[in-house]
Structure formats: C-alpha cells, structure tokens
Hints:
The chain has 257 residues and is mainly beta. It has one domain (3-249): Outer membrane phospholipase (ompla), Chain C. Helices cover 10% and strands 60% of the residues. A 12-stranded antiparallel barrel has the order 1-2-3-5-6-7-8-9-10-13-14-15. The two termini are 30 Å apart.
Amino acid sequence: MTGRIAAFAFSTSLLLAGPALAQSDAQDLSTAASDPTASLTAYLFQDFYTYGYHGRDDAEGNTLQFRMALPYELGGTSNIFRLTLGYLTDSPTGTSGFSDMTVFNLTTFDQPWGRFGLGAVALLPTGASGVSADRWALGPAAGFIATADWGIWGLFNQNLIDMGGTSGRNPVNLSVIQPIVNVAMQDGWSMGTSDMSVTYDWERNDWVSLPLGLQVNKLVTLGATPVQFGLSYEYNFYDAGNGPKDTIGFTMKILVP
C-alpha cells in the first residue's frame, strides 16, 4: 500500500463510518486509545509507508503491522499484555516477510495525577530469513501517563537485552523511548505525537533512530463498535547510513471498552 492509497483509505473510512459517539464519551475514549497504560482492549492495523531514505531519496519501503492489547487482572493488580507483529511488504533491498514478534506485559498503578506501569518486554526471533534479527532479547519496560484538562502526556520506555541466538548475528541491545502527547478536541478528534520511537543502540553506542512525528485521530462508531482512525507523518533526523527519512502512517484501532 502506498502513502496515497493509505490516505485514500483513511478518508474513505471516515465517510463510511457510522454516527460519532457523544462528545464527552468520544473524548474520554479517544484519550484512552492513545494511552499505553489504559485498561482497554484494542486491535490495531497499521500501514507505514516510507517514501524517502537518507542517501537514497528514490527508495521506498512499506510495513504492515498488527498489534493487540489485552488488559487483565492478576493477584489484585491491573495488567496489560501487548503483542506486535509486522510484515515487511517492500524495502529498498527487495527483502520482504514477517518481522520478529515483540510482546510485553505491564502492571499498572493508578495515581491521583494519572497512572504508571512496570513490566517486561521480549523480542522473539519469529521473522523471515533476511528480516529477522535471529536473536532473543528480554528486558524491563516502564512508563507513565499524566492527565491534564487538555489531554494526556507521558513517556514510555522499553529495553531489550540480548539473550542469545544465531551465531554470527549482531546482538540486540536497545533502549526505546516513546514520548506521548495527546490533545483531545471536539467530535472525537484528537492530535498528538505519532508512534515515534527514539532508539539507542548499546552495541553501537549511538542513537540509531531520532524521529519527530505528529498524528491526527478521529474516533467514530462502526455499528456499535468504537474505531479510531489515525494519519501520521514522521521525519527521522538520524541520517547516518541509508535509514528511513520520511514516513506516512495509517492506523485503524478497534476498541473494546
């Protein structure tokens, strides 16, 4: 799917959507949909189209991604289990196939100012040949979300520590920081940061991804089901090598309050 097709699908989905939720309910649900610590079941279908690479402006790439978030109670605590699986449909090298699966579990704690969470994240080498890192990785995850009259803000951090794998493949030792800002607006609209992931590679001793992105969301109902559509743009300032530069994202998030 190209960026133009993604944008067309986004606008078409809004035209086909059912009536909007009541304004107060839409704002509350839209805010929760952007909160990785919220106890909200969600199924995400995403498309990320990269139409420019540093050093290779004529190159293109595209990734489809599925993410599932499931809240549950255990021992009197609130938890969130999340699974993410991507499929590389196109890349400058011509490589395609499933990428490695990531899973994490977060235990959350409500506070007067918002919520924080502690847990663990794991990388599973389930990807296709040429796409997978072929390494196992496991590490801590933590984050917080603070509420405000205008919406939410916070920070989420995941750390992957190499646990072994195929010999000859580079170890995976990464720290990922995701800033979160979401401003609630009227009629189910919201605006904030994209899913940008600022990444530090401990093997290289360098930041290997420095994106800055914005996302616009619209919450509607399809029948009786709340669905949030999002359209994003990211620019990656890390220009060493031939990494992604300009990326457009389309998200459809099915919510189960």
